[in-house]
Amino acid sequence: MANIKSAKKRILVNDKKNAINRARKSEIKTYIKKFEASVEENNIEEAKELLVLLQKKLSRASAKSTMHSNAASRKISRLTKRLNTMA
C-alpha cells in the first residue's frame, strides 16, 4: 500500500478511470450484441440505427483512450461491412 499522498491519490484516480473504462467497454459489447442480433433477424432499419450509435460510442472510446484508435476503426469497419453485405 502506498504511503505517499500523491501515490494514494493516483490509486484513487486509477480506480475511477478503470471503472469508467470497464463500463464503456461493456456498453460497446452490449450494443455489438444487439447489432448482431438485428442482423441475424434481417432487421435492417434497427441495425442501421445501432451502427450509427456504435460508431459514436467507439469513436468516443478511442478519443478517451479506452481503446486504441485502430481497434475502434477496425470494429467500425467490420460492422459496416457486415451491414452492407446483408443489405
TrEMBL record:
**Polar residues composition bias: residue spans:** 63-72
The alphabetical list of record keywords is: Ribonucleoprotein, Ribosomal protein, RNA-binding, rRNA-binding
Q: Where are the transmembrane segments?
A: none
- Annotated region Disordered: the residues are 63-87
GO BP, sorted A to Z: translation
What would you give as a GO molecular function for this chain, any one?
structural constituent of ribosome
Which is a Gene Ontology cellular component entry for this protein? Answer: small ribosomal subunit
- Which InterPro entries would you find in this protein's record? Ribosomal_bS20, Ribosomal_bS20_sf
Q: List, alphabetically, the HAMAP family matched.
A: Ribosomal_bS20
Give the PANTHER family listed for this entry. 30S RIBOSOMAL PROTEIN S20, SMALL RIBOSOMAL SUBUNIT PROTEIN BS20C
The record's function comment reads: Binds directly to 16S ribosomal RNA.
Q: Which family does it belong to?
A: Belongs to the bacterial ribosomal protein bS20 family.
Give the protein's recorded name. Small ribosomal subunit protein bS20
